[in-house]
């Protein structure tokens, strides 16, 4: 690949990887194959927290990478819901309700989890679900307004709802979800930009972790929007201090 040859010959040590996930995966394979390491990658949300890029050889290339990622999901009740779904799926049992008495048809409270230690549908890096959660509630609030729903009276079910009405009503939406995040849209229809800054680090158990080392929050006052905890950053090669570098773009 031409880009690999450019990286290999260049004196630049910082690479901004503005790539889709598939493209980054292809580049990573070639960089690993040619043993090109020691570069500081700046990633985008398309790949910076992608578990599929974590391989036995990828950390030698991407260790120390920094990038912006969608904030992790913090949805009230989601953990319990997913645990219940996991339990019923993996142990092939079903929890049901009869009257006011909850009982389990086959599920047991205690199960042997050793055989599921390599279960790969973890929610540790669940990020985009938070945006989906907010989007659903935003549409619900929009419809609530169009149908003139209130606590004192029911919604106007005779009202005809058109797509453009929902879009216009969304511009007026302003509510707070249970975790404290405020949801609203500006005049262009864009939501407030909130991102975590994550850093590829090696955990004490040897696993690759995407450690939060800062954030960007456009809703905060000037001077507080962007925070980077440089002391928490692990740079390429396991260094705790950054060197002066030249930047190139890919």
Approximate strand percentage: 15-25%
Radius of gyration: 23 Å
Q: What is the percent of helical residues?
A: 25-40%
Tell me the overall shape: elongated
Total DSSP helices: 6
Q: Give unreliable regions as ranges.
A: 98-104
Structural class: alpha/beta
What's the arrangement of strands in the largest beta sheet? 10-9-8-3-2-1-11
Averaged pLDDT, please? Answer: 83
H/E element order:
HEHEHEHEEHHEEEEEE
How far from one another are the termini? Answer: 12 Å
Largest sheet: 7 strands, mixed
Give a count of the beta strands, DSSP E runs of length 2 or more. 11
Briefly say what this structure is.
This protein is α/β, with parallel strands linked by helices. The protein is 26% helix and 21% strand.
Can you describe this structure?
- With 250 residues, this protein is of the alpha/beta class.
- Helices cover 26% and strands 21% of the residues.
- The protein is built from six helices and eleven strands.
- It has helices at residues 2-9, 21-33, 59-62, 78-90, 128-146, 163-170, and strands at 14-17, 40-43, 66-70, 95-98, 101-104, 174-176, 182-184, 194-202, 208-217, 226-228, 247-249.
- The chain has a seven-stranded mixed sheet with strand order 10-9-8-3-2-1-11, with no helix packed on it.
- A hairpin with a 5-residue loop joins β6 (174-176) and β7.
- α5 (128-146) packs across α6 (163-170).
- The radius of gyration is 23 Å and the shape is elongated.
- Residues 98-104 have low confidence and may be disordered.
């Amino acid at each position: 690949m031409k880009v690999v040859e450019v990286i290999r010959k260049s004196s630049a040590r910082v690479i901004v990887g503005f790539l889709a996930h598939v493209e980054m995966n292809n580049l990573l394979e070639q960089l690993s194959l040619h043993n090109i390491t020691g570069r500081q990658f700046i990633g985008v949300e398309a790949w910076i927290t992608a578990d599929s890029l974590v391989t036995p050889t990828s950390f030698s290339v991407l260790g120390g990478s920094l990038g912006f990622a969608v904030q992790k999901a913090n949805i009230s009740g989601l953990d319990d819901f997913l645990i219940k779904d996991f339990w019923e799926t993996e142990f092939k049992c079903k929890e049901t309700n009869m009257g006011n008495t909850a009982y389990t048809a086959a599920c047991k409270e205690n199960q042997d989890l050793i055989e599921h230690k390599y279960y790969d549908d973890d929610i540790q890096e669940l990020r985009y679900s938070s945006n989906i959660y907010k989007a659903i509630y935003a549409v619900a609030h929009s419809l609530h307004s169009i149908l003139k729903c209130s606590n004192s009276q029911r919604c106007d079910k005779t009202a005809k709802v058109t797509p453009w009405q929902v879009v216009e009503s969304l511009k007026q939406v302003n509510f707070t979800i249970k975790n404290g995040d405020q949801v609203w849209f500006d005049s262009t229809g864009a939501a407030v930009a909130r991102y975590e800054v994550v850093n590829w680090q090696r955990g004490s158990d040897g696993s690759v972790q995407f450690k939060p080392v800062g954030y960007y929050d456009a809703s905060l006052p000037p001077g507080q929007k962007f925070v980077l905890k440089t002391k928490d950053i692990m740079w390429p090669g396991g260094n705790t201090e950054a060197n002066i570098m030249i930047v190139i773009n890919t």
